[in-house]
Design brief:
This protein has nine helices and eight strands. It has 239 residues and is an alpha/beta fold. The strands form two sheets. A four-stranded parallel β-sheet has the order 2-1-3-4, with helices on both faces. It has a four-stranded parallel β-sheet with strand order 6-5-7-8, with helices on both faces. The longest helix has 18 residues.
Length: 239
């Protein structure tokens, strides 16, 4: 089984971290292929960058030359999953939905701890669109930019854990979702601070994707995710 794990930004070190985290939970025989888009922003922290990332991710997957069995979109709250599902028959798993759906198996309510406050509405909207918002106690911002997670890992853990503790204490969350692909690998340290289950969207997405492939399930093509209709595209892809 081959699973493509596509970073939504162009920072190769984040792609490497996401790939390592995905591979750490992959079953024997599952090949994890981390991919970095060839264009886009170095980090995705707003609507403009998110829509650009959606195009970049779709084009990165379209350009991949080998067969694959599933795709993971490794950006929290980002756009584009629906477009990938139109383009592909194989399962497409978004880490936002993977984390939130997994959290609901281990707690009545969950909270998301993300990076900057400006990303909170994007995540809230994605959860609502996916039908996963009813049991979301809160979406909290750590105040860290995505690239800060790499610059000072200890400060990142402290800031994320602080918001996670507040989510459990003040918002009555019973599980925590790490709301950024760049937070891959931090779950155990946040568990130690909070005492509740902490879900990393990358690892959750890998196990869900593997399960869908093993069950022989593919993306439905009868209506919502039918392939794009053939038509003339003007100046696309750009030279």
């Amino acid at each position: 089984m081959r699973i493509l794990v596509v970073n939504v930004n162009t920072t190769k070190s984040i792609t490497d971290s996401i790939g390592e985290q995905a591979a750490s939970v992959a079953a024997p025989g599952t090949e994890i292929v981390p991919l970095t888009p060839s264009f886009g922003a170095e980090s995705v922290e707003g609507n403009y960058e998110s829509y650009l990332a959606a195009i970049a991710v779709m084009e990165t997957v379209r350009a991949y030359p080998e067969p694959f069995d599933a795709v993971i979109q490794a950006g929290y709250g980002e756009h584009g999953r629906e477009g990938l599902q139109e383009l592909l028959d194989v399962p497409v798993v978004d880490i936002t939905e993977a984390a939130a759906s997994t959290a609901q198996f281990v707690g009545r309510t969950y909270s998301v701890v993300t990076s900057l406050d400006r990303t909170v509405p994007l995540i809230e909207d994605r959860l609502r669109a996916a039908g996963l918002s009813d049991r979301c106690a809160s979406v909290r911002a750590s105040g860290l930019a995505v690239l800060d997670l790499e610059r000072d890992p200890q400060a990142a853990v402290d800031a994320i854990a602080e918001q996670a503790v507040r989510a459990v204490r003040d918002d009555r969350a019973e599980a925590i979702c790490l709301g950024c692909g760049g937070m891959a690998g931090l779950a155990e340290r946040v568990v130690a601070r909070t005492g509740v289950p902490v879900i990393d969207g990358v690892t959750a997405a890998v196990t869900i994707a593997e399960s869908l492939v093993r069950l022989g399930l593919k993306t439905s093509k009868v209506r919502t995710y039918a392939p794009p209709r053939p038509k003339q595209m003007t100046n696309w892809p750009p030279a």
